[in-house]
Structure formats: C-alpha cells, structure tokens
C-alpha cells in the first residue's frame, strides 16, 4: 500500500505506537504548510524556520495527547500559530521594533466599530484557478494578505486557509469565538476590496447601495 | 434586510453556519440586490484564491536540517 492512501489519522495512530516512518510521512505532508503559515505570520525566514522546527518537535513530544487523530493538520496549525504569536509578542517588546507592533493595535475595533461597506464592486476578470497560474498575480495575492493587520491575517489563515473551526481558532489565538468571527469578516472584506481593485473588470463595476440617510459622512458616491 | 445587515451576516452565510430565518431574509435581499450578489461572488473567489494556493516550498537546506533533527529527537524521545 502506498503512503498516499493512508489517512492522517492512521499515520498518527502508527506514530503513537512508535512507527518513526509514519511520523516522517506526516512531516512530508505538512512541513510546507507549517512553514508557509509561519512565514506568512512572521515575514522573516529565520523566525519561520525556528517556528517550523519547534512545531514538529512539540508535535513529537505531545503526539500522545492528540485525541482527535484526524485533526492532525489543524492541531499543527494551532501549535505553529501559538509559537508565531509568542515570537511576535517578543519582538514587540524589543525597543527597536515596538512601532510596528503598536500600529497593528491602534485600530482595535472589534467592539462595535461599523463594518466598512464594500466600495469597489465588480466582477472579476478571471477565476481563482486562472489567477493562480501566473507568478505576477500570485505575488499580488500574497501582497494583499501581507497588508492585512496581523490579527486579521492570523484569523484568516487559520480559518480560511488551514480550515480550523471557529473554536479551534479561538483556542489557538486565545481570543473569544465572537472575536474570531468579527476579525474573519473584516479580513475577508479587506481582502475582497483589495483583490477586486486588482482583478475586477471596471466595465462591470456596480455602485454600492447606501441605506444610511442619517449619516452625512457617507455622501459622495 | 438592507445591504448593511447582509454584511453582518455574511461570514455565517459563507460558512454555511447561519440561522435559517436570517438565511431566508438574506437570500430574499440577494435576489433583489445586484451589488450584494457581486460582493458575495467576490468573497467566494477571494477565499478560494487563498485556499487553493500552493504552500511555499521549503528551503532545501532547512528541510534536511529539519528531518535530521526530528530523527535524532525521535531516538531520544523513544528512550525515555
Ligand atoms: Zn444589497
């Protein structure tokens, strides 16, 4: 039987029983994902290497405690994001980089700030599959992600890329499930806005409907 | 439901984790509101774009270091 047909849960089970090759197969399956997640959170190659390494060492150490054997991937993502955030927190405390940290916390608007209304609304010229074929567009997609505030980026990566549940994301980031939902919505809307400005077909542009009649700041569309 | 209300329910709708009553109101709004239809289509594509993207390749030298480290640690771990 080839390794591709073995499920993660079966590999986790074997590795728990002492099968080293099973753990190595899990590493082959997930090393790139853990690396990518860490790199996207940290934007620094050395730090992402450290976090990736620590994630697999921690997985090895605590594998016996993983009860939900088919959630190995999300479990790894939780470990990697916790380690990344700890590192970011550490960086923030160092005086040379404190400004960067502060700016990401300035707009702390979970608690009731209005959700920004979509502005640039247009049909995309290409499908996601087509866009991903070209290096230039992949770079733009990466830049858009990178421009998100760190706390929105973390939630988006865990929920929409790694497929964690709201609860798993809340546990990993040590925030409430409500905060996960609010941050995810803001992350998705910010990315939509940026990407539609890049990939939207101007000829199909729609003007947003505004129903605020009491808000004088919203005129002018 | 207005566009602003739809916005608030958007994530739950996209995740298929929405109250049936709100879902019904949302779909009613959607049937009559072209900009909101496009926004939802944009959002679905946005999510797909990141979900379908390939992870970055591991730097070769790091990959080797990682695998040998884990092999060593595995041995030590099994001895305990
Ligand atoms: Zn609408």
Give structural attributes:
heterodimer; A: 221 residues; mainly alpha; Rna Polymerase Sigma Factor, Chain: A; Arc Repressor Mutant, subunit A; 2 domains; globular; B: 80 residues; 4 helices; 0% strand; binds zinc ion
Domain module tally of chain A: 2
**Distance from first to last alpha carbon of chain B:** 62 Å
> How many domains in all of chain B?
1
Rounded average pLDDT of chain A: 88
Q: Which CATH class of the largest domain in chain A is shown?
A: Mainly Alpha
Helix content of chain A: 55-70%
- Average pLDDT of chain B works out at 93
**Dominant shape of chain B:** elongated
Radius of gyration of chain B: 23 Å
What can be said about this structure in brief?
Chain A has 221 residues and is mostly helical. Chain A has ten helices and no strands.
Molecular structure report:
The complex is a heterodimer of chains A (221) and B (80). With 221 residues, chain A is mainly α. Chain A folds into two domains: 86 residues, Orthogonal Bundle (Rna Polymerase Sigma Factor, Chain: A); 89 residues, Orthogonal Bundle (Arc Repressor Mutant, subunit A). Chain A is built from ten helices and no strands. Chain B contains four helices and no strands. Chain B starts with a helix and ends with a helix. Classes of the chains: A mainly alpha (221), B mainly alpha (80). The interface between A and B is large, with 55 and 44 residues. The structure holds zinc ion. Zinc ion binds next to helix 1 and helix 3 of chain B.
